[in-house]
Design a protein that fits this description.
heterodimer; A: elongated; B: 550 residues; mainly alpha; two-stranded antiparallel ribbon; Cyt_c_oxidase_su1_bac (chain B)
Chain lengths: 197, 550
């Protein structure tokens, strides 16, 4: 009799182990699923302040002349890129609905061509859903020749349905080097030279 | 009530060497146990493995403690005296990692291995060989982790929370080894958790319902489920780090379209349940000790179980309170603030139940009870500072200051560690057959209480005054508080050597303990002889309401 009990018990143990292993695998899958879920969640809610990475068509919007929003541009140096990025227009006072253009200057301080990219972030994060970028240097990677100085525009609109509480929008651009081998397609030789720094 | 003679017909000829002689017992049908090193390497006995876990955890406590003393020596006065800032950062990181993953968690697993089969009337853990494997993974993991200190570029230096991109883009080259060691330690905890769940759900003595189980078993069952749920998330997050570092992915790299904040979400989705993994078994230990030395039944057993369950469930809904300063929208700040404060309710239920258990009890103050009472008082202090930190607008001031350091050390050192010490004093008679030396134990207790409070209480003030954590040097106005903290840390650290002396003395001899070593103890472990023979409950006892009936 004890042996039959023992066998039944071993079976029950095996069942518990199978179930916990299943739960383990499910949770591991959940951890990796969180990465795309997080992106979807952020795209819908704008929670991480990531602005859309593609150009939007300019639309004629009603300009809300009664309301002022101040838009500020800040730029940050990323590590490993011998560039500077300057916002020529540091601050705008705008009406929601209007179309505005800000000028930015990229300078490559290295004596060789370098490929890089400016990655945007909007603060407060909720504002990112109401910012329409019609043209932005941040949509593509840039390659600057040795010592090149290049002026690039940002054309944007702010939706009139921007939440009432938001009076200031800050657009931050951080410079990052582009070093992935896959991006070396068009001008690979000079790029890899720059990537070594 | 348990009587003083063994209820099972397990004959123990010689108690002091009973463990090694135990191989001759009938029933299991195997020959005599191997001796010497091989016995410990190959053992599948839950008591041996429990002992291994506890010894491992104690040695990690001392290694992590030495690192803490390096930190406190540097912070004794302002300026850089002892170590370079790079090494200081490695010390804060390694101290945290070793104490969390090497000292506290294995100590609870060790106690679980020793006590859960005894408390539910099972002959051993459900998966004894897996048990051996999950223990021996640990020394491997921590040797690997400690070896990173000797590698070029030094060990991990980004804090125990290893936030990306500090731990990816800016990390030392040894970070991949750190990730592997954490993988191994994580697998060890997961296997331990599977084993504990399988044991508790399937190996209970006939007649023992779930609601008859001692609370230590209950809290560990819930802890094991937490481990199953969140260790894979940690494994996932560090695997993504590994990919970011070595294979050019951009999970956490903003330059490639990733998001470093995602790392914090993943980490704290693991990390907050993790802090309950380190405290729920402590609740179980205290819930065993307080009724014993109050000579009363535990007040509100069922509410204790439900409170533990609700704390576990709610631990999944509060993670972002670690990230109030990261730039969350207002709605999220409010949500996480309220859920965090809500956790104080079940925790309060527990604290009040312990107090109600002591109320009008016939209390005696043996060392386990002293540590348990100190746990209740000091853990509550840590709980209150936790409530202060939960207030999102106030947290912007407290964030990353020594106030946070004071908070989590209060819940982990005079909280979790004191509960482990209480459990060790409580069960040492069962493990060795002798009572721990009472005088030395009380010296250990009082020096620890004074040391721990002298160390961590001033940190509240230096933190509120604005001293940031994880810095090797600080402004002059924090000098007095830091000097007090450093003196306290050395007092606390040195007094733990007393604990070592107590254990060694207790293993060698002393006042002999009967089967039921404490007057008010009622759980099943007190029905087997002291010291517990190698094999117990080979024939499952019949129980009713958690007590043996024949």
């Amino acid at each position: 009799m004890p042996s039959r009990d023992h066998a039944a018990q071993q079976q029950a143990v095996a069942r518990t182990v199978r179930r916990t292993l299943l739960a383990l695998v499910a949770m591991l899958g959940f951890a990796f699923a969180l990465v795309p879920l997080y992106d979807v969640f952020c795209n819908l809610t704008g929670l991480n302040g990531k602005a859309a990475s593609q150009a939007k068509a300019a639309v004629a919007m009603e300009i809300d002349e009664s309301r002022w929003v101040s838009v500020r541009f800040i730029t940050q140096q990323g590590q490993g890129l011998p560039w500077t990025l300057e916002a020529l227009d540091e601050q705008f006072r705008i009406h929601p609905g209007g179309q505005y253009s800000a000028r930015f200057v990229f300078t490559n301080h290295a004596d060789y061509p370098v490929r890089g990219r400016a990655v945007p972030s909007v603060s407060p994060a909720e504002g990112s859903l109401h910012l329409r970028k019609i043209m932005c240097f941040c949509f593509q990677e840039q390659t600057l020749a040795a010592g090149e100085r290049r002026e690039l525009p940002l054309v944007f609109q702010v939706d009139p349905d921007l939440p009432e509480g938001i009076r200031d929008l800050t657009l931050a651009y951080t410079l990052y080097p582009v070093m992935t081998p896959s991006s070396a397609g068009d001008d690979g030789a000079e790029n890899s030279a720059g990537g070594e720094t | 009530m348990a009587s003083e003679q063994p209820r099972k017909a397990v004959l123990q000829a010689s108690e002091s060497e009973g463990a090694t002689a135990g191989g001759a017992h009938v029933g299991e049908g195997h020959g005599s146990a191997p001796r010497g090193m091989l016995r410990w390497l190959l053992t599948t006995n839950h008591k041996d493995i429990g002992t291994l876990y506890l010894i491992f955890s104690l040695s990690m406590l001392f290694i992590g403690g030495i690192m803490a003393l390096v930190i406190r020596t540097e912070l004794f006065q302002p300026g850089l005296q002892m170590v370079q800032p790079e090494f200081f950062n490695q010390m804060t990181t390694m101290h945290g990692l070793i104490m969390v993953f090497g000292a506290i968690m294995p100590a609870f697993t060790g106690l679980a291995n020793w006590m859960i089969p005894l408390q539910i009337g099972a002959p051993d853990m459900a998966l004894p060989r897996l048990n051996n494997f999950s223990f021996w993974l640990l020394p491997v993991a921590f040797l690997l982790l400690l070896s990173t200190l000797l590698m070029e570029g030094g060990g991990p230096n980004f804090g125990w929370t290893f936030y990306a991109p500090l731990s990816t883009t800016y990390a030392p080259p040894s970070t991949s080894f750190f990730i592997f060691s954490l993988h191994i330690a994580g697998i060890s905890s997961i296997l331990g958790a599977i084993n504990i769940i399988a044991t508790i759900l399937n190996l209970r003595a006939p007649g023992m319902r779930l609601m008859d189980m001692p609370l230590f078993v209950w809290t560990w069952l819930i802890t094991a489920f937490l481990l199953i749920a969140v260790m894979p998330v940690l494994a996932g997050a560090i695997t993504m780090m590994l990919f970011d570092i070595n294979f050019g992915t951009s999970y956490f790299n903003a330059a490639g379209g990733g998001d470093p904040v995602l790392f914090q979400h993943l980490f704290w989705f693991f990390g907050h349940p993790e802090v309950y993994i380190m405290i729920l078994p402590a609740f179980g230990i205290v819930s065993a000790i307080v009724p014993t030395f109050s000579r009363k039944r535990l007040f509100g057993y069922a509410s204790m179980v439900y409170a533990t369950g609700s704390i576990a469930i709610m631990s999944f809904l509060v993670w972002a309170h670690h990230m109030f300063a990261v730039g969350l929208p207002l709605v999220a700040e409010l949500f996480f603030m309220y859920t965090t404060m809500l956790i104080a309710v079940p925790t309060g239920v527990k604290v009040f139940n312990w107090i109600a258990t002591m109320f009008r009890g016939s209390i005696s103050f043996e060392p386990p009870m002293l540590f348990a009472i100190a746990f209740i008082v000091q853990f509550t202090i840590g709980g209150f500072s936790g409530l202060m930190l939960a207030i999102a607008p106030a947290d912007f001031q407290y964030h990353d200051t020594y106030f946070v350091v004071a908070h989590f050390h209060y819940v982990l050192v005079p909280g979790a560690l004191f509960a482990i010490l209480a459990g060790a004093y409580y069960w040492l008679p069962k493990w060795t057959g002798f009572y721990p030396h009472e005088g030395l134990s009380k010296w250990h207790f009082w020096l620890s209480v004074i040391g721990v409070n002298l160390t961590f209480f001033p940190m509240h003030f230096s933190g509120l005054a604005g001293m940031p954590r994880r810095i090797p040097d600080y402004a002059l106005q924090f000098a007095d508080f830091n000097m007090l903290s450093s003196i306290g840390a050395f007092l606390f650290g040195i007094s733990q050597l007393l604990f070592l002396v107590v254990i060694v003395k207790c293993a060698r001899g002393g006042v002999r303990a009967p089967a039921c070593a404490w007057e008010g103890a009622v759980d099943l472990e007190w029905s087997v002889p002291s010291p517990a023979p190698l094999h117990t409950f080979e024939i499952p006892p019949q129980t009713r309401d958690g007590q043996i009936i024949r």
